[in-house]
Specification:
The chain is built from 14 helices and nine strands. It is globular, with a radius of gyration of 20 Å. The protein has a seven-stranded mixed beta sheet, sandwiched between helices. It has one domain: Vaccinia Virus protein VP39 (Rossmann fold), CATH 3.40.50. The protein is of the alpha/beta class and 397 residues long. Strand 4, helix 10 and strand 5 form a beta-alpha-beta unit. It comes from Emiliania huxleyi (Coccolithophore). Belongs to the class I-like SAM-binding methyltransferase superfamily. Erg6/SMT family. Its EC number is 2.1.1.-.
Length: 397
């Protein structure tokens, strides 16, 4: 499969994937960052996105601020849409255009690990240039563009968030991939496509935003052609998670609040949901546990440290300067209003200690929302109670 696509691999590999912030800061000027945030601010103003009020509404939906899981499930669409109105710009400038994790193999760069993680799904599906493929929960389309270049297939991505659709389609056009690769605004519980529309479907760390995986899998099953396959990396609680363990529950709640999730599901829930809607399960496993001699686990890049040039945005020093920088950009109207809004500290009982580092003092509110998610993810990764890459491979008969 890979040998037949050497040319596309060269065209789509690391240089086409955005770098994490530490590398971005090394390779771009402050002017480019201001230009990016200014463009984002104009786009958000055009769509009526108000970061300050959105973050208040978002916080009120979560347990750490008095919210309720059942209410979040019922209002999942508003929860997800509000979250990505707030987080998309920060994800892109701080992580890249592919909003997902990957274990890093020995000798790999961050870019290469992200790209390889995506190509693995294409290889397992055996995507051909003539195929029609659906990316279910595509963000701004980073994986969609990488796989579009690599395979030559026609790929349609769906996301609930209009801001992501506009941003992603602009990037597809800029990359010369439109209209073969495109984004559509849609709820993946109600896909706007006829039955048997796609040869293959994939999803990368997106179905976690659904209150019930079976509802998403049922729609994916419907739009797949007979004989087609669905592969995904799923965010899940592992079998090590215990509801009665305070640290396990804290990690779960921090992830839910920091990452826009209604309620975290287990690996068993995913397995059962696939069977429930009619899929034949080819394989499921926690890919985070795959052998990786000399490599790094997916959560290492998020681990707090005092000073590390390769993870500058996650250090105490980096956090301080980024908070100041975002506040200044907002004051100059070069970042969306509310980006630098201070948020209160969580109750002391919710302040985890990781690698000798306490949850940082209050900073810009959107950034602190993401920071809580970061700490919850590291806790879950270190304890083995959470995985962002529960791999599923299922077939429609």
């Amino acid at each position: 499969f890979f040998a037949d696509r050497k040319t596309r691999f060269a065209a789509a590999s690391p240089s086409s994937v955005s770098l994490p912030m530490s590398s971005t800061l090394q390779q771009t000027t402050a002017g480019k960052v201001r230009q990016f945030m200014g463009a984002a601010s104009k786009q958000e103003a055009k769509q009526g996105i108000k970061v300050g009020s959105d973050i208040d509404r978002y916080n009120n939906q979560h347990d750490l601020h008095g919210g309720d899981a059942e209410a979040r499930k019922e209002g999942y669409a508003d929860l997800v849409n509000t979250y990505y109105n707030l987080a998309t710009d920060f994800y892109e400038i701080g992580w890249g255009q592919s909003f997902h994790f990957a274990n890093k193999f020995a000798g790999e760069t961050f870019n290469e690990s992200i790209t390889r993680h995506e190509y693995y799904l294409a290889a397992r599906l055996g995507i051909q240039p003539s195929d029609s493929v659906l990316d279910c929960g595509c963000g701004i389309g980073g994986p969609l563009r990488n796989l579009g270049r690599f395979t030559g297939a026609s790929i349609t991505g769906v996301t609930l968030n209009q801001y992501q659709v506009d941003r992603g389609n602009g990037l597809c056009a800029k990359a010369g991939l439109a209209p073969r690769c495109k984004l559509v605004k849609a709820d993946f519980h109600k896909l706007p496509f006829p039955d048997n529309s796609f040869d293959h479907v994939y999803s990368i760390e997106a179905c976690c935003h659904s209150p019930d995986r079976a509802d998403v899998y049922r729609e994916i099953y419907r739009v797949l052609k007979p004989g087609g396959c669905f592969v995904s990396y799923e965010w899940c609680l592992t079998k090590k998670h215990r509801d009665g363990d305070a640290q396990h529950m804290l990690s779960k709640k921090l992830i839910e609040e920091g990452d826009g999730l209604p309620d975290m599901m287990s690996t068993t829930h995913c397995d059962d949901s696939l069977v429930k809607v009619g899929f034949q399960v080819v394989e499921t496993r926690d890919a985070a546990l795959d052998p990786n001699p000399g490599g790094e686990a997916w959560y290492v890049i998020l681990t707090p440290s005092f000073f590390n040039l390769f993870r500058l945005q996650f250090t105490a020093i980096g956090t301080f300067f980024i908070n100041v920088f975002m506040t200044c950009l907002e004051a100059l109207r070069l970042a969306p209003a509310g980006s630098g809004k201070a948020r209160p500290s969580p109750p002391r009982r919710h302040a985890p200690r990781l690698a000798g580092t306490l949850l940082t003092p209050p900073g810009p509110q959107v950034r602190e929302m993401l920071r809580q998610g970061q700490l919850g993810l590291v806790m879950g990764g270190e304890m083995g109670t959470f995985t962002p890459m529960y791999y599923i491979h299922a077939k429609k008969a």
